[in-house]
Amino acid sequence: MFLKTLIAVVFLAMLASLAAGVGFLLRDDSTSRRLLVSLKIRVTLAALLLALLFYGFFFGSLGEA
């Protein structure tokens, strides 16, 4: 149950980073680095999400209901 909650939290954090990136894209000037930082965070969260999913399926936590 903890793994499923952690996966949901990471996914919601990815969505929040995506929303922040859109806001930075629309508001900031061309010299701002906040959009790049948002992208780095989102890529890191995506890698973490894939690792959690792999862990869950490999060890059977997510395989069968």
TrEMBL record:
InterPro entries in alphabetical order:
DUF2909
Write one Pfam family the protein is assigned to: DUF2909
Q: Does the keyword Membrane apply?
A: yes
Please tell me the species this chain comes from: Billgrantia pellis
The alphabetical list of record keywords is: Membrane, Transmembrane, Transmembrane helix
Highest taxon in the source lineage: Bacteria
The molecule here is called DUF2909 domain-containing protein
TM regions (residue ranges): 6-27, 39-59
